[in-house]
Automatic annotation (TrEMBL), chains A, B, C:
Family statement: Belongs to the UPF0126 family.
Residues spanning the membrane: 6-22, 29-49, 61-80, 87-108, 168-186
Claim: Transmembrane helix is one of the keywords in the record: yes
Membrane topology qualifier: Multi-pass membrane protein
Protein origin, superkingdom: Bacteria
InterPro entries listed in its UniProt record: Gly_transporter
Glycine transporter domain segment(s): 4-78, 90-162
Main location: membrane
Gene Ontology cellular-component terms listed: plasma membrane
Matching PANTHER family: INNER MEMBRANE PROTEIN (PTHR30506), UPF0126 INNER MEMBRANE PROTEIN YADS-RELATED (PTHR30506:SF3)
Locations listed in the record: Cell membrane
Name of this chain's protein: Trimeric intracellular cation channel family protein
Length: 204, 204, 204
């Protein structure tokens, strides 16, 4: 079940990433690489930091094919995608919570302390988008956008909290996902923002 | 033989990278770091992703000395290099195919599936340039330039295909390199471009 | 002792990093991530390159709490920090030499050749700031600033040189730190610059 949602999520991430590549006039190679980095980069960064090998896409090279195909499809039907903007925002939110849960679970498997489990969820959910923005030469949206990383942290905390209360794992996952999704979607709908820190002094 | 070409290639990559650093007014430290990242970064990224240690430059620290020396030499003779622009474009193309073959071979040694072998070649050939552009705060040229990553993929595919047909390894390497080089040089000469995906809708 | 200086240094790095985040109007998530990357990123990059696990912040998750707390405090007292600019420049210089020594020691523990030990010190001292600048979408200051990476190299070289002369380790560390600090602080005071390489020809 989580696996199926994972596949849907990487497809959705790859498709929206393709549009970011299009904003920078990239060719098909650029489109594919940006899609890979966005959809698979979060888990890759997590695995590098926690020395957890092999990468999912090395064990399952079909993920590379699926995401590349989805990205090129997105470039072809870009006009249609613009009309389905809302659907993709929902799928992106779904991806965020699914990636977060998977990241938490992997960190639990290798017995990391709970704070690192939470961080692993956030890295898995968010680092792909950060890499995408760095490669597209933009300040990562994550650092400025509405409740995004925060939704990931809340999802992970709910999951860990329910687990701590001995709630069965399946229920913990569903509840944590629903809470995280609700928070993310409400924040999009009402344009919630985290307080920003604006500083203009030059030191150098 | 491949080793000799590798040394020539990292020297050439380091020298052209130094000019990129010069466009950003970097000092000698910046010039050396950009040269290292460009010449040795592709293999380094590959090794990190596939958990293949130690790095070549840890086993052979002389690579760091050679590339740093080449980069500083390039800064000194920058005017001369501009005149030899064509030579360096050729050497860069040579580096691309040599790095690609080496990347494929290393992935084969650790028994990765063929799609990942191809990707390993592309990462080894191209990631150094991507890192250089990120550090120089530019959208990676790779994602937009004439047939570059594509030439790497074709080189790797030719190498793997010939190997599959039981052609002796030495011949496979030479033929794959010639095909890749020809493709890259023709694309420079005739300014071939991959189709670009241009998208201007704002979502956020 | 070195450990105490390390804690002071990561706090100082996290606080100045928060101001960089403020220049890009980041929210609290961005502020924390930039602080983590700046304060802990140098050692993290070093560990990835040399396959040295686990990360310090995985073993000591409290480092994440301390640096995040320091960063948020910095955002709150930003005005006060501007007035204490000099203090933070000194603490940043202290961090540079302390990180450098720690980086050299870790590379020595895993028996890397001396040139790599020096590089390990420089990476530990400087890579955090490079990552910060990449995430803030700027050309890394390190590549252009007054004697910074050079101070790290001199610190590492002094440490290695004294060790080679069989000077007791404690004395080597203190002398190397004093030399590195003096060089860095003098370069700030007199605005020393490394020679820059400026190049304006376009190749593409």
């Amino acid at each position: 079940m989580l696996h199926l949602l994972y596949i849907i999520a990487i497809i959705a991430e790859a498709m929206t990433a393709a549009l970011s590549a299009g904003r920078r006039d990239m060719d098909w190679v650029g489109v594919c690489i940006i899609a890979w980095v966005t959809a698979l980069g979060g888990g890759t960064v997590r695995n590098i930091l926690f020395n957890h090998y092999p990468m999912s896409w090395v064990e399952h090279p079909e993920y590379l094919v699926i995401t590349a195909g989805a990205a090129i499809l997105a470039a072809v039907i870009a006009r249609l995608m613009t009309k389905m903007k809302k659907l993709f925002l929902y799928l992106d939110a779904l991806g965020l919570v699914v990636f977060t849960i998977i990241g938490c679970q992997i960190a639990e498997q290798i017995n990391l302390p709970w704070l690192i489990v939470l961080l692993s969820g956030m890295i898995t959910g968010c680092a792909g988008g950060v890499l995408r923005d760095v490669l597209c030469n933009e300040v990562p949206l994550l650092f400025r956008k509405e409740v995004y990383a925060s939704a990931s942290i809340v999802t992970g905390a709910a999951y860990l909290g329910l687990e701590y209360l001995s709630v069965p794992v399946g229920i913990s996952i569903v509840v944590a996902c629903v809470i995280g999704l609700a928070l993310r979607l409400l924040s999009i709908k009402y344009n919630w923002q985290m307080p920003k820190f604006v500083y203009r002094e030059e030191w150098h």
